[in-house]
């Protein structure tokens, strides 16, 4: 009954289609009617439910090799993206409380770590045994020489020393302090320790820009200082908030201040807050050190050494006369010991491309007295000279060491060429993503390893 009814309907539709004018619509109706007739005449045992378009037998073009390769790469990419990344490990955190300061000044960062230094050392030595000799011969100063830190004072120093030599910064800092204590002598003097006088944030915000400029500050720096002081005075910033903030929250809090960029926050987090897992991806000195460290690991013919003179020290400012292309990147976070409250909080300056190019040596005459004084100073400043054994340690890869692979697409030859003058990537030695991948095994104690990256140098041939 149903079969004959369907057949009759299909017949009528076909007949009607034959009487319609020849138009596109009529053609489609006629084609559908013929298709319905064919279905009606087909036995149920052999009938399929496939749509009309799928009953056509057309020869499909075989995919090209290039198309297959593209699809394979896309599938690999999708597979890589589908693999869940493990969360970054975090060291056992120890909460520290701010230390009260005298005279109504901002609370201080206590002279203690939030993690176990011995655990951090063991972790780094475990993933790369070459760290063992370095730790034993050269102290990791920010994390072993602990002193209290005044965050407002340290960040103020960073702004005052922006893009000028340390001597100029020292002079301006002294004049700035004299605005609040005229009894100080006119000649710049040392301002050691957090207990020496420094204006509070509430005192600074009482000053206007013209008065601040009499101390040698530019219009912009005066605005930066007032913005920083206002945030500490009204509570948007405080020692407690800086100590309790997670790393990303710390960046948000401090980069909101005019004149403070991400590099400054990195240095402040390492040298003042002593955070264990900071990777300054924008510092060329760190980039170069990481590149050399891993190049020596993957290339037996690349010899590496360590230069204590290149490490940040409180008695010397490596940022003298250096300039930064980014106005938010401050060349000096805290000056030398003549003008910083905390020796352990004095970081290096970000290396500029010009500073990384070796300069021709110049001969300087010295009197015997001057030479004697210089040698005496160097004896007091520098650590014990390294013996050849540390070079042997740095360049010998233990057979039991699990050498991490280089990031995808990065080869040993590329690492070598990037150390040359004209083969950087937009002015950088390695990209932030490559730095993250290379140093993944150092987590969660990358700050300690980063400190030594400034000191790595290619061995003289």
TrEMBL record:
Biased composition regions of type Low complexity, renumbered to the chain: 337-346
InterPro entries (UniProt xref): Alkylbase_DNA_Glycosylase/TA (IPR051912), DNA_glycosylase (IPR011257), HhH-GPD_domain (IPR003265)
Keywords carried by this UniProt record: DNA damage, DNA repair
Region (Disordered): 38-100, 307-390
Compositional bias of kind Basic residues: 58-72
Pfam families on file: HhH-GPD
Biased composition (Basic and acidic residues): 38-47
A molecular function GO annotation: DNA-7-methylguanine glycosylase activity
Residue span(s) of domain HhH-GPD: 160-339
Family recorded in the similarity comment: Belongs to the alkylbase DNA glycosidase AlkA family.
Record-given protein name: HhH-GPD domain-containing protein
Organism whose genome encodes this protein: Phanerochaete carnosa (strain HHB-10118-sp) (White-rot fungus)
């Amino acid at each position: 009954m149903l079969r004959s009814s369907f057949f009759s309907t299909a017949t009528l539709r076909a007949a009607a289609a034959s009487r319609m004018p020849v138009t596109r619509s009529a053609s489609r109706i006629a084609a559908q009617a013929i298709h319905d007739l064919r279905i009606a005449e087909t036995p149920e045992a052999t009938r399929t439910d496939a749509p009309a378009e799928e009953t056509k037998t057309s020869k499909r073009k075989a995919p090209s090799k290039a198309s297959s390769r593209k699809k394979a790469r896309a599938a690999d990419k999708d597979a890589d993206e589908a693999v869940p990344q493990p969360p970054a490990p975090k060291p056992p955190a120890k909460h520290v409380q701010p230390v009260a300061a005298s005279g109504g000044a901002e609370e201080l960062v206590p002279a203690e770590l939030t993690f176990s230094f011995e655990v951090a050392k063991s972790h780094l030595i475990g993933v790369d045994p070459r760290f063992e000799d370095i730790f034993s011969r050269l102290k990791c100063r920010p994390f072993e020489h602990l002193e209290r830190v005044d965050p407002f004072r340290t960040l103020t120093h960073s702004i005052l020393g922006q893009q000028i030599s340390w001597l100029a910064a020292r002079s301006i800092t002294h004049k700035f302090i004299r605005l609040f204590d005229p009894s100080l002598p006119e000649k710049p003097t040392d301002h050691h320790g957090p207990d020496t006088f420094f204006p509070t944030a509430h005192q600074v915000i009482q000053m206007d820009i013209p008065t601040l400029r009499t101390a040698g500050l530019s219009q912009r720096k005066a605005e930066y200082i007032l913005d920083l002081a206002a945030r500490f005075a009204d509570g948007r910033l405080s020692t407690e908030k800086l100590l309790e903030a997670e790393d990303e929250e710390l960046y948000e809090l401090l980069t909101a201040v005019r004149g403070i960029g991400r590099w400054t926050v990195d240095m402040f987090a390492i040298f003042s807050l002593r955070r264990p897992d900071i990777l300054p991806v924008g510092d060329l000195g760190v980039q170069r050190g990481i590149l050399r460290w891993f190049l020596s690991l993957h290339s037996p013919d690349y010899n590496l050494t360590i230069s204590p003179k290149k490490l940040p020290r409180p008695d010397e400012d490596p940022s003298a006369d250096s300039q930064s292309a980014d106005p938010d990147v401050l060349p000096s976070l805290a000056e030398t010991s003549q003008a910083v409250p905390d020796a352990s909080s004095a970081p290096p300056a970000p290396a500029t491309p010009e500073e990384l190019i070796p300069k021709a040596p110049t001969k300087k005459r010295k009197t015997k007295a001057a030479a004697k004084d210089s040698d005496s100073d160097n004896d007091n400043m520098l650590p014990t000279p390294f013996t050849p054994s540390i070079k042997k340690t740095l360049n010998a890869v233990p057979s039991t060491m699990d050498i991490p692979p280089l990031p995808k697409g990065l080869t040993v030859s590329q690492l070598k060429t990037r150390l040359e003058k004209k083969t950087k990537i937009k002015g950088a030695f390695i990209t932030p993503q490559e730095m993250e991948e290379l140093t993944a095994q150092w987590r969660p104690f990358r700050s300690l390893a980063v400190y030594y990256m400034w000191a790595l140098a290619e061995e003289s041939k």
